[in-house]
Amino acid sequence: MTAIIQIENLSKQYGSGTKALSDVSLDIQEGEIIALLGPNGAGKTTLISVICGLVVPTGGTVRVGGHDIRTDWRAARKLIGLVPQEIALEPFEKVMNCVRFTRGLYGEGPDDAYIEQVLRSLALWDKRDAATRELSGGMKRRVLIAKALAHRPKVLFLDEPTAGVDVALRREMWEVVDRLRREGVTIILTTHYLEEAEEMADRIGVINHGRLLLVRPTSELMGEFGRKTLTIEVTQPLAAIPDDLAGRGLHLSPDGRSLTYDYDTRADRTGIARLLGDLAGQGIMVRDVSTRQSSLEEVFMTLVSEPRQEVTA
């Protein structure tokens, strides 16, 4: 795939001395979904704002579709759609006119057929003549997405797009995101719903203190940093873990009916076969065995809590 966004040694330091970005380098491939994760103040929004031309970087370069965002900003900006965190809409304007107006800002001619397509895909068509102040928070956020798509951008930035949206609407919006990706739109998102990033993103980047710690394919990230938990259900409740099995990392459930064992998926030997054999040797009969992969949230907390050298893909 071709890199539609190329970021090289990007830095941003504000006049107060705060360093929001420090030497960030990243290539984003055309047609992929990449999720940027990080705690509040990590630099995610600043990175998006620089790429979109809203914040002037201190150093480094960014190219969108081969266009430098500073020297060829008009061509670069035309390729980008942005859905910001904050909901800022003209309260008395109709939904249809809001989207039309944004399309005009990019120098695009009228195309009500395309606008209808966008509004229908976001379940907004029935609200096309409603003033934006009459809409719920979730609907207003959909209008922001419609505005961002008004000029048919090649790259779509979603900065916390599902904040304040209920579960049903969130799922519908992610279906729209998946459809856009299938149509070739490159999508960069920040989100606090880590399970969505795990499900939707092709790659995940972790940012902390203005540094890009790593970028990995989602499955690879889970495999590299994830751990699994083995749950062993026993036929008869145990009062305690047998002394011969102490120090093996076993944990007994309060009701004594199950044992849990954490293991590293990357280890040459997980110790599971030996553990099951030792349980049998102790006369402990096993009813069932199951495993659970650690979630992205657990992986994320591990990454941001441990000192690491930044790594780029």
What would you say this structure looks like, in words?
By secondary structure, the protein is an alpha/beta fold. The protein folds into two domains: 221 residues, Rossmann fold (3-Layer(aba) Sandwich); 66 residues, Alpha-Beta Plaits (2-Layer Sandwich). 32% of the residues lie in helices and 28% in strands. It has ten helices and 14 strands. The strands form three sheets. The chain has a six-stranded mixed beta sheet with strand order 6-7-8-3-9-10, sandwiched between helices. A four-stranded antiparallel beta sheet has the order 2-1-4-5. It has a four-stranded antiparallel beta sheet with strand order 12-13-11-14. A hairpin with a 2-residue loop joins β4 and β5. α3 runs parallel beside α5. It starts with a strand and ends in an 8-residue tail after the last helix. The C terminus is likely disordered. InterPro entries: AAA+_ATPase, ABC_transporter-like_ATP-bd, ABC_transporter-like_CS, ABC_transporter_ATP-binding, P-loop_NTPase. Keywords: ATP-binding, Nucleotide-binding, Transport. One of its GO terms (molecular function) is ATP hydrolysis activity. It holds the Pfam family ABC_tran. This is ABC transporter ATP-binding protein.
